[in-house]
Structures are given as structure tokens and as C-alpha cells.
Amino acid sequence: MTCDIDMAERAGRRRARIVIASAAVFVATLAASTSEQRLVDHVRMIGWVAWGAMLLIVLAGGGGWFQPLGVRKLMNDDVTRDNRQRSLAVGFWVAMGTAALTFVVDRYKPFQGQDASRIIITFGIAAALFWFGKLERSAYRHQDQ
Q1: Local confidence band at 128 (pLDDT 50, 70, 90 cut-offs)
Q2: Picking from 28-37, 65-74, 112-121, which range would have the lowest pLDDT averaged per residue?
Q3: Can you tell me the mean pLDDT for 76-92?
């Protein structure tokens, strides 16, 4: 059991770092995309949709699917589940704020619907991931003290 606890702690710490990095890269890819109609743009869009879906699944389910069941259960304890719920709430509010901002900005610089949607989704997912990673890292720091 101690081995599972150690594995869960290492995997949880790694997950916290990975979700923060994923949030940063996900936002950075938004700047590199366009709404043109070339084949490469369609491939890029499909990749973005798949990546966003995968990030949401990790956020909602906790990840760690390649870990043994006992380790996954330890990685998704009550503190982690609470951190996940809090981060999903942050993601929701960031998405709503971003939607309101794009609504106002659209008046002066019109967006295509797909572009506005991508901005809202990207910032909502990234905020939730970042907040989850921050909360998890904080929980591990408190555990170490």
C-alpha cells in the first residue's frame, strides 16, 4: 500500500505540473490558428477540438488512466475532487467573462462565430486547468510541511 501511496503522490504532483503547462500551451495555440479554409486549417481545427476534449476529460476524470486502480483512487481523493470542482467553477466564470468581453469587442471588431467560440472555450478550459494545477500544487506543499 505504501508503494501505491508513493506512486499516487508522484503521479499527482506530475499531473499538477502537466495541467498548468497544458493550459499555457492550449492558450498559445489559439494565437496560431485562423479561420481560413485551407486543408491544413481544417486539420488544425480537428486537432484543437480533439485536444480540448481530451483536456476536459482529464479535468473531469482526473487522469492517471495508465496507473493501477489503487493508485488512481489515491490520486483522486476528497481534496483532489474538491479542487476539481473549484477549478471547474473558475473555468465556468472565466468562460462567461470571456463571452461577455467578446460580445462587447464584437461591436467594434466583429468576430466570426467560430473564432469567438474558440476564444471562449480556450480561456475557459485553460483557466480551469491552471486553477486545478495551482490548487493541487498548493495541497502538496501543505502536505510536505
Answers
A1: very high
A2: 28-37
A3: 93
Higher pLDDT, 121 or 75: 121
- Give 1: exposed, middle or buried? Use CB within 10 Å, 0-12, 13-18, 19+: exposed
Q: What is the C-alpha separation between 122 and 46, in angstroms, rounded?
A: 14
| Mean local confidence (pLDDT), 1-15 | 81
Q: Which grid coordinates are listed for 97?
A: 467573462
Measured between alpha carbons, how far is 28 from 33 in angstroms, rounded to an integer? Answer: 9
Q: What is the value of pTM for the model shown?
A: 0.82
Which residue in this structure is represented by grid cell 493508485? 71
Pairs from 52-55 (Cβ < 8 Å, separation ≥ 24): 52/26, 52/121, 52/122, 52/125, 55/22, 55/26, 55/125, 55/129
Which grid cell is 133? 494545477
Other C-beta atoms within 10 Å of 82: how many?
A: 12
Domain spans, the chain = 2-144
Asked if 45 and 33 count as a contact pair (C-beta separation under 8 A), the reply is yes
Residue 53 grid coordinates: 476534449
